[in-house]
Amino acid sequence: MDEIKLSSCTISDEIDIRRVSERPLALRNDRYDEDFDWKTLFYDTYQCGRFTVFQGPPLNNLYSYLKEYSLFQNVSGFLMAKHKINQRHKACDIWIRGRVKNDNISGPLGDFRLNIQPSGNHIFANKRVMLTLSKENNLEWIADWAEFYQKVHGVEAILFYDNGSTSYTAEEIRRAILRKCPSLTVVVVVWPFKYGPQGGVSGGKDGNVAPWDSDFCQTGVLQHARFRFLQNAKSVLNCDIDELVVGEKSEQSIFEYTEKRLLGLSYFKGLWIGNATEKHMESGIRRHRDFNYFSSLENNSCPNKWCIVPKITNRHYHTWSVHGIKGMKPFFGKTDYFKYRHFKAISNGWKYDRLDESNRVEPSEKLLDRKLKNAFSSADI
């Protein structure tokens, strides 16, 4: 498969204009300025049906400068506008009807050479697709994750975004998956943009809780995948490398279950799987299958993840986001027929040390996750 290319536009450091952050100074910690994406104008420009899409982080103050470019002067927020801007939750996309020529454009944010990328929606047409964003996860974890979803849920394709890993290349990711799952369609997109500052206590300052207002990268991935690649997919599951979906009350795959639902959407909660294991970890790399015990039986819930039939979402009203579809109430897709397992041990510790021994629990019958263990066993993993 040909390499997937992005046509991004970034404001030059020589130009003294940057995106304004909406987070108050009092809630910006010492890492905020380094982590925030001040300069990316568009992640990519590409064809989607009869439109050319310019997609990136929220423009904020940059919109007033962008309108000085002749290409964007007729862009409007009006619903039926020929050229439409959608200013979304943590994202923005501009839809220009027709094919925009590959040409130079000039304005106050700099001079850019457009190189409009082709649609990839044909690649995943009528396929059940896993979608994820990853950085520096071990290749064995990635391959195991793919194998689980192929054997347990019948996934047919993987759309994998790599957020700047340096330990391996995009092609090495693709090969690692195909060695275990040779029949899968696998596309790896190199996504080199800043993830963005965290929210919550860890993203705040002096113990104050910060809003989740500056982490544009992952929503950008979901929107990019949705419009450039997944418009014609049969169904799409959004889960990370450390997350495995298990049936609680159904033997169907999560894809099959979602496709049969009236609204074509499933929201499901997660449960933490702790570090308890019978394996001597010194003997080799830790793997998903080594961990079958809940971290606890109380207060052990993780936020929603989702599976969706893409054609049900409207490009004007809905935004694919990390834990839900913005503009579509969780109530309408909520299910307890599936839950995902969130593995503490499958982590490189980018956010915090999930292998901290002070939080370790010992294997016990009470904490054993039998449904997870049976899923591994039935798939011969």
How would you summarize this macromolecular structure in one to three sentences?
This protein is an alpha+beta fold and 381 residues long. The chain contains eight helices and 18 strands.
Q: Ends: how far apart?
A: 28 Å
What gyration radius follows from the Cα positions, in whole Å?
21 Å
Instruction: Supply the helix-strand structural class.
Output: alpha+beta
Counting H and I runs of at least 4 residues, what is the number of helices? 8
Main β sheet profile: 8 strands, mixed
Number of beta strands: 18
Description:
There is one protein chain. The protein is an alpha+beta fold. The chain has two domains: 105 residues, no CATH class; 251 residues, Spore Coat Polysaccharide Biosynthesis Protein SpsA, Chain A. It has eight helices and 18 strands. Strands 11-10-9-12-15-14-18-13 form an eight-stranded mixed sheet, with helices on both faces. A four-stranded antiparallel sheet has the order 3-4-6-5, covered by helices on one side. Strands 1-2 form a two-stranded antiparallel ribbon. The longest helix has 15 residues.
